[in-house]
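Milestone M4 deliverable, item 7.
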Amino acid sequence: MTTEYLESLAARLRERFKDMIADCAIVFGEIAVTIPPESLLTIAQALRDEPDFKFEMLMDVAGVDYLAYGVDEWTTDEATGMGFSRGVKKVSFARFRFENAPPPPKAEGPRFGVTYHLLSVSRNERLRLKVFCKDDNAPVVPSVTGIWASANWFEREAFDLFGIMFDGHADLRRILTDYGFIGHPLRKDFPLVGNVEMRYDPEQGRVIYQPVTIEPRVLVPKVIRDDHRYIDDESEKVSGA
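Output delivered:
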C-alpha cells in the first residue's frame, strides 16, 4: 500500500476509535495500532464487521517478550571497524553456570505483548494490532477466538512458548512442547539449552529426563576482512614460495 493509502486508513482508525487506542503509527510499511487489553474485543469486533474496515482474516498471533528489549549482547561503544573488539566487553547474562546465573537485564515498560496480524481480503488492506499485558508475573489478554476462529492454535502457541494466558479460550493447553514440560521456551530468561535433557536408559528400558549436562555460551563470529593485512600476508607467502 502507498503512503497516502496508509495515512488514509490510519486517519479512519483514529476517527473511529479515538481514545480507545493508545497509538496508531505507520511502521515498516504497515499500520501498527497499540490498544489496551480491555479494548481488544470491542475493537477487534468492529474491525471485522464494519464496512470501513472488513478485516475478515486473522493471519497470525505472536507473543513477544520485551525483557531485554534494546539491550545488546556486547558493548560496541569503543569498537573499531577492524579486529574483534566487539567481543571483549560482555554486557549481558549470556554466559553463566546454572547454579549462579545472574538476573537478566530488564527493559522499561511491560514485559509481555501480543501482536495480531489482520488482513482485509475485500479491501486489500493489512493491519497490525499490539496489546501489552499489564501484569508481568501473570500476563493475560482476552481471547479473540470468538471473533476469528483461526486464533485457536495461535493463542495456544503463544501460551505454550511465552506463558501468556488468553482469557476465554476454550482449550488453552500446550501445543508444541512435550507432555509435562516445565517452563516457556521463548521467554528471554529461559536457558538456551533448556533446563533438562532426555536420553534412553538401557538399564531402565525407557527414556528418562535428567539435568542438562552442557552449559550455555555465546559465540562471537569470526569476521574475515579483505584488507591490506591479509593481502600482504598472502603476497609474502606467494613470493616466498
